[in-house]
Amino acid sequence: FKISKEAIHNRIRRGSLDCVIEHGVKYIILDEAVQTKTSPTQALANDKLYAYIEDENKTLKDKIKDLEKRNTSLRDQKEQMLIQEKKNIEQVYKDRDAQLQQVLHTISAKFLPHIQEKNTVEKSKDDFVDVVELVVKPIRLKEFLKLKSYKSAKRQRIKNRFKRLIGRDERVFRRKGKVYVDPSRFDYKDLISE
After folding, report:
1. How would you classify the pairing of strands 128-136 and 18-22?
2. Which pairs with CB-CB distance under 8 Å and at least 24 residues apart come from 182-191?
């Protein structure tokens, strides 16, 4: 309009120009449509500005596509790493299970001759796993008391208690002339304690 901002504000204050405020912006209401003429240099500058904005927009779109590709690639690499780590962890557990089975087998074979090893197979979600179950067979009363590490006098008293129960208590029985007990099935605290 070829006048300064101050002149427009003064006219609004005086009431010679009507205005409306929307979202903090003042809009001036004109009776007649004022057409502004743009010079050829302004049109050229506007065209250059639009071309520059379009180029920047295209460049940004290309960068976004590139970043999306990188993001997808990184996500795929992360998934592959997680799958590999899962396999490594499963292998570590399988190796540890095998070592534990060997230890249990060694212990049962050397230190506990009355224990028999029974192999079973349990099905897990993904694969089959061998599980070692230790089944305690009935043992001689003499061996049972040796494992408890009692003194000889106490062992003799306990033996006598057990012998009195042969045929009367299912927890104590005779096999081939020897007295046997089955600690895997029965509790003998009442006969051992004094």
Report:
1. unpaired
2. 182/136, 182/137, 182/138, 182/139, 183/136, 183/139, 183/144, 184/135, 184/136, 184/137, 191/158, 191/161, 191/162, 191/165
Q: Round to whole Å and give the CA distance between 48 and 23.
A: 31
Residue with structure tokens 């012998």? 163
Predicted pLDDT at 34: 47
Write out the H or E segment, with its range, that includes residue 130: strand 128-136
Q: Are the CB atoms for 17 and 8 separated by under 8 Å?
A: yes
Answer with the residue of higher pLDDT: 177 or 108: 177
Nearest to 129 by CA among 176, 158, 93: 93
Residue 81, pLDDT above cutoff 50: yes
Residues near 26 by beta carbon (within 8 Å), at least 6 away in sequence: 12, 19, 20
Residue 60 has pLDDT above 80, yes or no: yes
Q: Is the per-residue pLDDT at 33 higher than 50? A: no
Other residues' Cβ atoms within 10 Å of the Cβ of residue 181:
20
Report if pTM > 0.85.
no
CA angle 84, 132, 106 (to 5 degrees): 100
Please name which of 7, 28, 33 lies closest in space to residue 18, comparing C-alpha atoms.
28
Here the tokens at position 135 are 């089944």
